[in-house]
Amino acid sequence: MALKMEKWFAQRRKTRLLELAYRQITLAIDTVTDLDKAMNAVRTKNREEAKEHIERLFVTEVEIDDLRRAVFEEATKGSLPPKDREDLLHLVKRLDVMADHVKDSARNLLILLDEKVPTEIWNSYAEITKDLVKSATTLRKALEKLGVDPSGARKFAEQVDEIEGKVDDKYLKAKWLLLQQKELNAATVLILKDLLDLLEQIADTSCDTADYIRVLTVSA
User: Fold this and answer.
1) Domains along the chain with CATH numbers
2) pLDDT value at position 6?
3) pLDDT value at position 14?
4) Which of 108, 122, 65 is nearest to 198 (CA)?
5) How many CA atoms lie within 13 A of 180 on its CB side?
6) DSSP designation for 46
7) Cβ neighbours of residue 125 under 8 Å, at least 6 residues apart?
8) pLDDT digits (tens, 9 = 90+) for 205-215
9) What is the pLDDT of residues 44-95, one digit of tens each?
10) CA neighbor of 57 nearest in space, from 96, 103, 122, 104
11) Which DSSP category does 78 fall into?
C-alpha cells in the first residue's frame, strides 16, 4: 500500500512539474510573439509600437523567472525518480535559456530603434522571428502531448528540428546581407550581428528543448 501511495505522489508531482513547464512555454511563446511583433513594427518604422511590444516582453520575462523558481521548489518535494526529475529540470532550464535569448534580442532591438537600418535587413530578420514563433508554438504542442501521446510529442519535436533548419538558412542569408552594408557604422553593424546571433540561438535552444521532450517521451 505504501509503495502504491509513493508512486501516486510521484506521478502527481511529475504532472505538476509538467503543468508549470507548460505555463512557462506558454509565456515563452508570448515573448517570442512580442519579439516578432516588435521586429515587424521596426520594419514598418513604427517605433512606438515596437517599444510597447518590447516593454510587454520584459514584463512577461519577470513572470517566467518566477515560474522557474516555482519549478525548482516543486522538484525538491515528493519522491520523483532522480532521472525523471533531472530530465524535467533540464527541460525547464532550456526554456529559461530561450527566454534569456529573447530578452537579450529585445534589448538589442531597443538600442537599434533610432538607427537608420536598411529595410532589407529588417525584412530578413522578420523572416527569422516569424519562424521562431512557429517553433515555440510547435514546442508547446509537443509539451501538450507529452503526458498523453508520446508519439505525438515526438512528431511535434521533429517539426521543431525542421523549423530550426529553415532558420539556419535564413540566418546565413541575413548574415550575407549584413556584410553587404557599407553605409552603416561599425557599432550598428556589431549590434545587428549580435541580434542576429541571438535569433539563431533562440531557434537552437528550441531545438535543444525538443530533444529533452523526446527523452521524456521514453518515460511518459
Assistant:
1) 2-219 (1.20.58.220)
2) 42
3) 65
4) 108
5) 9
6) -
7) 39, 43, 174, 195, 196, 199
8) 999 999 988 88
9) 999 999 999 999 999 999 998 888 888 888 777 766 677 777 877 888 888 8
10) 103
11) T
CB distance 88 to 75 below 8 Å: yes
- H helix and E strand count, the chain: 6, 0
Residue that is written with C-alpha cell 516593454 in the block: 55
Q: What percent of the chain has pLDDT over 90?
A: 61
Burial class (CB in 10 A: 0-12, 13-18, 19+), 198: buried
| Grid coordinates of 60 | 512577461
Nearest residue to 98 (alpha-carbon basis) of 21, 6, 172, 203: 203
Select from 63, 67, 192 the least CA-distant residue to 118: 192
Pair 122, 39: CB distance under 8 Å: yes
d(C-alpha 139, C-alpha 156), whole Å: 7
